[in-house]
Amino acid sequence: MEVKIDWGGPDGMLFVGQTGTGHIAAMDGAPEGGGHNLAPRPMELLLVGTGGCTAYDVVLILKRGRHAITGCSVKLQAERAETDPKVFTKIHFVFTVTGSNLPRAAVERAIALSHEKYCSASAMLAHSAKITWSAEIVDTALPSTTSP
Length: 148
Description:
With 148 residues, the chain is of the alpha+beta class.
């Protein structure tokens, strides 16, 4: 795997990363750090990548188990050390998995397998951060509780 990062120039802290597969991601800093707040911070992208890695696993595991999953989102809440290097010290993942008659045990197993076995990003971050997670299941098989 290879990526390339280019600095946007002396007027700020904008960086553009290009992946080996040809995709582009921009990063910028806060104004107080010389940036112009034009793009996510690098550490935010690290969390986005980690969330994407584990959500990918959860969907794949549930689909392979032939569960009727129709949606998956994950929100990450992170805390960082106060001194440099300001590594992540705590990360909590809040999964919302949507589908028809999804067994809680299957969803929780998929999340656990992702964190314990498959997600390389969360495995790396677990060396500096306490990783926790919770799951909400939205059952589309249940009748809507809204009135007309």
